[in-house]
Write a structure and sequence with these properties.
By secondary structure, the protein is mostly beta strands. Helices cover 10% and strands 35% of the residues.
């Protein structure tokens, strides 16, 4: 699927195509950020015809439990015939129609390929378990389909598949639902029970003209602590960064698997399906790339470059900016002035009319910046932290404020100092992508468990060890407050803090995929060893010793990605101008009381 140009370490120069819109008024400015278009092909899509022959087998078979293909149905049915059952080609599991309304066979749904056409209330239900009462924990599911509309009109839903838990009635479901709150094309995972949450992503970018698309869905069950993520045509839907996460992980019951339907009598798919693949494990990124390359031809997806186009319409008293193409919105006070990239601008964007004139345009860059590609995201709890990744070197910088406060956690044998890093704003998913694909992740987790995270051994926790930059400073308070209720000794910059040697400490980030939180931690044993007294700092004398330790957020790590993962990174995240290096420092921040 990924045509990999030889870009690592290259010195290809930057080119720019621009489209300038009518003058408008300034709204706000953002840091510079660009999404490059690499010279040379990034993704190859084929529109080969099947020619009436059986498609080749999926390239990955380990854990494959269901392989449904419309090509197999077409051997016995003619165009327009009703389809009462669908047999998978992996284990012979038979999925039967769940009610009196039958889907129909379409001999040519486009490019000579067959499909099954669902009619909002039709769908298949089947059992792909090898043992009665068995469950499926982690799963990776692929669907090649074409969406036509919602089951019950606008504001409703339409579903590709659903796997129900026999123990609590909740469901692992992928579909679309305008009620999710992100737009008419939002990918949507539903937990089924009213007391559980739904998880949705950004508006999905499907290929135009009613084309077929392939949907990749990864479900983490009890073994991995719960969680979902999904993508369309290889582009991540960012489900883990937009909404909530499963409150309780569960295992789905394969005997309650529905294709093209949510329940037995409602919210069926209005659209067509060409192929379904269900694996009883989480596939690696390499495996997913292989399967998606295979699905390219089944979907017959052809990517056509869309020229940049910026439109401005009036919505009194303001104006609305909207654009198509892969351009980056830029603002300038004067036409011959400096153009500033609007990195976080939504599309469309409402611009407040003020007294200051300004201009907007779209700019598209092609090629690789000298010095290599750089990616950045910003996460936030009470303050902002910047994550910047330099792809050529593998260096990752994590920079935030001075004197960030940490609390002690010692329950169940743990011994660590911690604080939230992304509780308010989870960023773009860049940090999660890098931590998930870090080749040293297992080694780092082992070191973290030994270093104080004794009970963080489950699969939903991922760790990234950090190295302090030269400017980084860690301090601990040496005196307890004179009065037990006095918390003044834990305020930044007070005289009772003294610096401790950062080289003796274990610094790390740890990600919980069950709820999406990323925390920063300092090895508890290291704090006591570095302290002159050999004891933990007294902090405010509360059980968790609030802010007994404070640290500048100025760290780096190194993550070496494979060429394939680099390509996925380039496809998924916009590049930016490099801003951090080993000389980076934490920024000054006026901590309010309690921080």
């Amino acid at each position: 699927m990924y045509g990999l140009p030889s870009y690592v370490g290259s010195n290809r120069r930057l080119f720019r195509r621009e489209v300038t819109g009518r003058d408008c008024r300034e709204h706000s400015n953002y840091d510079a950020e660009m999404k490059p278009k690499l010279l040379g092909p990034l993704i190859f899509f084929s529109s080969l015809l099947w020619g009436g022959t059986q498609p080749s087998s999926p390239p990955v078979t380990d854990g494959l439990q269901v392989w449904l293909t419309a090509m197999d149905v077409g051997d016995a049915l003619a165009d327009g015939d009703p389809v009462s059952s669908w047999t998978d080609l992996s284990h012979g599991h038979v999925f039967r129609n769940s009610n009196d309304v039958l889907p129909t066979f379409v001999a040519d749904s486009g490019d000579g390929k067959p499909a099954i056409d669902f009619s909002r209330s039709s769908g298949f239900i089947g059992d792909f378990s090898s043992t009665a009462g068995s469950t499926i924990g982690d799963a990776t599911i692929f669907v090649v389909g074409r969406f036509a509309g919602y089951s019950h009109g606008a504001g409703s839903s339409s579903y590709w598949y659903s796997i129900t838990s026999s123990t609590d009635g909740s469901e692992h479901t992928l579909g679309r639902d305008e009620r999710a709150g992100t737009g008419p094309n939002a990918l949507y995972h539903w937990r089924g029970r009213p007391d559980q949450k739904a998880y949705y992503g950004d508006d999905i970018q499907e290929h135009p003209g009613g084309a077929f698309n392939y949907y990749t869905s990864v479900f983490l069950g009890k073994e991995s602590g719960g969680g979902v993520r999904a993508s369309v045509n290889g582009v991540d839907g960012n489900l883990q960064n937009i909404s909530g996460h499963p409150d309780t992980a569960y295992e789905a019951d394969p005997s309650q698997t529905r294709i093209g339907l949510w329940t037995s009598n409602g919210s069926g798919l209005d659209g067509m399906i060409r192929e379904v693949l269900i694996y009883d494990r989480v596939l690696s990124l390499e495996d997913i790339a292989q399967v998606e390359s295979y699905l390219d031809e089944i979907a017959s997806v052809v990517v056509e470059e869309t020229p940049n186009q910026l439109s401005i319409t009036r919505r009194d008293p303001n104006v609305i900016l909207s654009w198509i193409g892969e351009g980056t919105l830029q603002f300038a006070g004067e036409l011959d002035g400096d153009w500033v990239d609007r990195v976080d601008a939504p599309n469309p964007m409402e611009v407040e009319v003020s007294s200051r004139e300004g201009y907007y345009r779209l700019a598209q860059r092609e090629g690789i910046p000298e010095g290599g590609l750089v990616f950045r995201t910003q996460v936030k709890s009470d303050t902002h932290r910047i994550v910047e990744y330099h792809m050529d070197t593998g260096d990752l910088y994590f920079v935030g404020e001075i004197d960030h406060g940490f609390d002690w956690y010692s329950t169940n044998g743990n011994d660590l100092w911690w604080c939230f890093q992304n509780k308010v704003n989870r960023g773009s998913g860049l940090l999660e992508f890098l931590m998930r694909n870090n080749p040293q992740a297992q080694r780092m987790k082992t070191e973290a468990v030994v270093g104080g995270w004794a009970t963080y051994t489950t699969r939903n926790y991922t760790f990234l060890l950090l190295t302090p930059l030269a400017s980084q400073r860690t301090v601990a308070n040496k005196n307890a407050p004179d009065i037990a209720t006095d918390t003044g000794t834990t305020q930044p910059g007070t005289d009772d803090y003294r610096e401790i040697d950062s080289s003796n400490l274990l610094f790390l980030l740890y990600h919980n995929t069950a709820n999406g939180d990323i925390n920063m931690g300092i090895g508890g044993l290291g704090v006591r060893t570095a302290n002159v007294t050999g004891e933990n700092p007294p902090g405010d004398k509360s059980p968790n010793l609030d802010n007994g330790v404070r640290a500048d957020i100025a760290f780096k790590a190194n993550i070496q990605l494979t060429d394939e993962l680099k390509q996925i990174l380039v496809d998924q995240f916009p590049s930016v101008t490099r801003s951090l290096d080993d000389g980076a420092r934490a920024y000054a921040y006026d901590h309010p009381p309690g921080l």
